[in-house]
Amino acid sequence: MLILFFYLGDVKYSIKCEKVREVAPMVTLKDVPNTPEYFAGLFNYRGMIVPVIDLCQLIQGRPCKMRLSTRIILVDYKKDDNTPYVLGLMAERVTEAVRRPKDVFLSPGINMGEAPYLGGVVMEEKKMIQYIDLDLLPESFNFLPMLQNPSDNAQETY
Amino acid sequence: MKDLVILKEENCWKRIGVWGRETPPCPELDRGIQCRNCAVFTQAGRKLLERDLPQEYKDEWTQILVEKKEEELPGTLSVVIFRIQGEWLALPAGLFAEIIDPGLIHSIPHRKNLAVLGVINVHGEIQLCVSLQRLLGLDTETFNEKETQQRYERMMVLSKDGEKWVFPVDEIHGIHHLRPDRLRNVPVTVAKAKSTFTKGIFKWDEKHVAFLDHELLIYTLARSIQ
Hints:
The structure holds two protein chains of two kinds.
Chain A: E1 2-8, E2 11-16, E3 20-25, E4 39-45, E5 48-54, H1 55-60, E6 71-78, E7 84-99, E8 105-106, E9 121-124, E10 127-131, H2 150-157
Chain B: H1 12-15, H2 27-32, H3 39-47, H4 55-66, E1 77-84, E2 87-92, E3 96-100, E4 105-106, E5 116-122, E6 125-130, H5 132-136, E7 154-160, E8 163-169, E9 171-178, E10 198-204, E11 207-212, H6 214-225
């Protein structure tokens, strides 16, 4: 299984590559006012409007440094009604992808509460590297109507 | 490996290198054989990416990512586009052994086939040199040399079933990915001899390019020289 490593500050994190569509270099983002700090902006990705989340801001509360190695990880998602959409995740030092067996993913068995997506760890050279669960990640963003449950929207119209 | 302390200006691959004779030798060399397998070297490479992001780089990629990726349709052909006088022609890229600079053609006496120009030395091997222009019957008179300011003469070395053929051409454009739906049939009214060798026509850069039937071409050639 392919794992993508990246850093947020000095801390190394990982994600599974299964859903990663592309790792793109940093681009100019369109700012959207009145959104949470971790929402970096929108950009035109091959004709699609893709929202970009600043993982540094989300997890560590400070924006990503603008370096050449700061990249946008584009992840494929599906809404509940099966319409696909793409989400961009901005992180620092996205320079390494490695192949590892499935059993390196371990769950410490604790409930992360505020950040359910930060549950598991990857064992790499006997060190623990937290991994970000891409499935649980979008649940934390409630500011994007397109990511919300369609049933929520339906209730509003009633 | 992780215990290696990387100094700020570490450049041991330049100071010690693989051929370093100092004692004791770099312990990492035993493990990795070459400096480029060493973590110090990798880390130094990664550091190059830790530079500030230039605005131009950002702008450039913003533009690139706006463009839709052109998906390659199944059946997309790689063709080499070349020019003989005023005609742009194409042949499948897989057929090409190499492109060489024009060499000296040694003519063969008593040749019956006018298309055969002679033999040429390609890397020490003697190959037949054939004029596509004569083979296809391209009109030499209607072409005005002034239309193209420069000549970029090359020779194409084609390889088919172990046999090599050399064709002098006036210009090579390069490889072009030809989508199958771009290939048009040759108009039936075209009465030129070359149309029999033309599989189809496609538009490239406001020019019409004839895609040649290489099977027929090589077959005819092989027959004619026997």
